[in-house]
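Suppose you are handed only two things: the residues of a chain and a line of SMILES describing adenosine-5'-triphosphate. What would the bound structure be? This form records exactly that question and the answer produced for it, so the two can be stored side by side and reused later without any lookup.

QUESTION INPUTS
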Amino acid sequence: MSLTMSDISLSYPDGERTVTALRNVSLEVGAGELLAVTGPSGSGKSSLLAVAAGLLSPTNGSVLVDDTDITTLSRAAVTRMRLERIGIVFQQPNLIPSLNAVEQLQVTQHMRGVRPRRSREDGEQLLAAVGLSGKQHRRPHRLSGGERQRVNIARALVTRPSVLLVDEPTAALDHDRGAAVVDLLLEVTRQYEVATVMVTHDTEYLDRADRHVAIRDGRMTGEVVPGGGVAAG
Ligand SMILES: Nc1ncnc2c1ncn2[C@@H]1O[C@H](COP(=O)(O)OP(=O)(O)OP(=O)(O)O)[C@@H](O)[C@H]1O
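ANSWER OUTPUT
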């Protein structure tokens, strides 16, 4: 289970011109590893995640999810890949107001043809793993912001993906809740042996990640391994 992005460039058309959002970006994340990507607004973080998720095709470069280069797949095959092998945690949980926590997880499973009883049992286990035992039957309005983010993370894991892509998970949370969410991400990354990329403009939680890279003007500017100094970027 791994994600390998090699020499990724991405340009957006912008009227007569093009805006280059990513320039020759490469990164590799292995199973059970959490990589944080940080950078200021407009540096290319969301673009990087969108390319990793197969939502945007890069202008150049390859994206290997396990052994499959998703940049070479048809749109339908990428969508399938996203459903099966790539978990995405968006900044806003976007939970469905009328569904309780376990039902939020069952929606994805239903689309994959998993029987309700199985998806319910599995969903309850996953919710327990993210610290929501006893709250499985609450609807979103009866959960706190941090708890909704936990449902969001559990939902991204229902397919047991190879890759987990996380966009600004702490943006709406205070320091302690933010730290708890990053710790949870690290925990599930290990437990489910997923290759996790967390994008954040928040530098205060970076030390909790296994490694972190900075991005500026679409370029990777170096990698930091906690306690190990700066590696080549
Ligand atoms: N659809 C688009 N069309 C044209 N330019 C775009 C588009 N999306 C992003 N850009 C540009 O690409 C660059 C990178 O944007 P991106 O959203 O990836 O940055 P970001 O680091 O995620 O920013 P933020 O932290 O503010 O969300 C910016 O210059 C942005 O203006």
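WHAT STANDS OUT: Helices lie at 45-52, 75-85, 101-111, 116-129, 145-157, 175-191. The two ends are 23 Å apart (CA to CA).
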